[in-house]
Amino acid sequence: MAQEQAGRTLRSAQWRAELTVGVLASWPAAPAKRTADEWAKVRASVPGGQHLPSSVITGRTRQIAAFAKTNGRMPADVFELEGVPGVARMLLLSACDGQQATIQRCEDDPGRAVLRLQLPVRPAPRSYRDWAWVACPIALPPTVPAGAVVHLPTLRVHQGRVRADLAYTHAVPKTSRTGHRVALGVDWGLNTLLSAGAVRLHDDGRITALGAGAQFRAAGVLAKQHRLRRHGEKLHAKTDRHQRLTDARGQRDLTPNVPLERRQSLIQGEIRHVSARRTNLGDALAWAAARWTVDQAIAAGATVIYLEDLRSMEARGMGRTMNTRLSQTVRGQITEHIRHLAGETGIAVVTVPARGTSSRCPSCVTPLRHRKAPDRPTTPGWKWALCPGCGWQGDRDQGAWRRIAARGLTHQTKTVVDRTTATMVIRATVDQLEARAIITPTASTTSRDRSKTGPTRHRTTRPAPRRRRAPSPARPTGPAGQRPEGHAHTDRTRLPRAANRHQGAHTISTPTSRHRPRGAALGAGFHRHAHASPPRWEPILEPDTQSGSGSLS
User: What does residue 213 show for φ and ψ, rounded to 5 degrees?
Assistant: First the structure.
């Protein structure tokens, strides 16, 4: 176990040493921004640099630049650049054979397993008689299938208790690199963490979208992560301040400040608590997003999930706050969990190049124009995309997952398995295949225009008359100029409508143009400027039960 753990540490140190030597040998003229030739040179100097994420090289460059700024010279190697590597406090039981440790499931209870270890009974064992077998029962979580084969775990101490990281294997359907017809495209975002949708590849080469897609929004969780990060930074600033005060008192040979040390220990405990909360929150978010993605693929009947390869993505040019929020997302954990959950159902997970997925139209590969969303004009950003070629418009994330899925289906033959990570990846795009990676609109989306740019009422060839065709009432026989009393003697229980919305029922409107008899359409009779007088309700006689005479109410 000690040899295995030391070997892992040495292999990691050797990789970092080779990376440092390669970066130092091809040091750029401007460390903050390399040219294309300098990038090609540094990738040639680093072992396996052709497929190494640019963020790794950039991070090592920044570390060397910080060392040179502090010491006034370049470091000689990684041993001068870094300190002594730390070793985790854990026991790798997988490095042992059957003479040292075994594990098997209980026959009567499949939810439990027994770990048998051969441990010494004295501090300095000299022979086999100084060793004894110890049985440790382990409760298996419900996520372990009943027919899975469990393997030797890794033991570690967590909060005073021994934890066992258990690995298990079980049979799953085999995934394939090619031959996919239905695929799920997944696009990364910030507040909208994931945008996904399914597409279908037809026999004639057409690619159509299956529905409008869905989004996994995690703005609340990401905002909480951002608050915890800021709280942790403030706590670290306090500890640094207290450490400087303590060092200053030590240089002046003063007695230690006991309240300051006590406060320092309390803040360090709070830092560990905040770090644990951030870790648990990120892990829960990663599992929830991965489970949602795999469920979308299962519901659509997809056999492959295409993800953006964002290993080379760097958050810059968006301000300090936005850059930090982009860098704190858990894309790596989500990708690992998606591969784990999709592998159980036989769904392949392939990463595709991310260049041009959000900047080009999914229907004609024309560069898009981005603007504010029409339904959210006050929200900052450029979430809405409009194609000047074919007229497609929509959320840029909705267009991105279409581009990702279409690119993956057309580049199936270019899918390879990475030797180091054993994952499927499409390393580069081909122009001939990229020209066919377009989404063909279906008949349901083109037969009817659903936009609200024009009248929405149905047009008829013969509209209904605005004036009623009933004959006019007979001329009254009373004095000339007297008009009827209104609706006092009718069954109508509400007041008449006004000629317009800003006019009372008893006012006379002022004419502004030539008289037009449109009052009937507005509910004011035949004449627009003549209105009925207010109704006067007649008194109702109620019988008096005692005297038999009527009384007014």
Answer: 85, 180
Give pLDDT tens digits for 276-300: 999 899 999 999 999 999 999 999 9
- Residue 209 near residue 197, CB atoms below 8 Å: yes
Q: What are phi and psi of 73, to 5 degrees?
A: -155, 170
For the entire predicted model, the pTM comes to 0.68
Section 385-403 average pLDDT: 87
Instruction: Name, in order, each residue with C-beta under 8 angstroms of 169's C-beta and a sequence gap of 6 or more.
Output: 148, 149, 151
Sign of the alpha-carbon torsion through 447, 450, 453, 454: positive
Give me 10's structure tokens: 């040495």
At 534, the amino acid letter reads P
Cα-Cα-Cα-Cα dihedral sign, residues 170, 171, 175, 180: negative
CA 44 – CA 61 distance, rounded (Å): 16
Q: Report whether 215 contacts 397 (CB < 8 A).
A: yes
Task: Name residue 37's amino acid.
Answer: D
Instruction: Report how far residue 141's alpha carbon sits from residue 161's, in angstroms, rounded to the nearest whole number.
Output: 17
Residue with tokens 């042992």: 96
CA angle at 360 for the pair 359 and 361, rounded to the nearest 5°: 135
Give the Å distances, CA to CA, from 170 to 114, 150, 173, 302, 471.
19, 9, 10, 22, 88
> For residue 109, what are its two tokens?
């209870």
- For 221-273, where are the E strands, in sequence order? none
**CB atoms near residue 198 (< 10 Å):** 23
Number of H helices, E strands in the chain: 12, 20
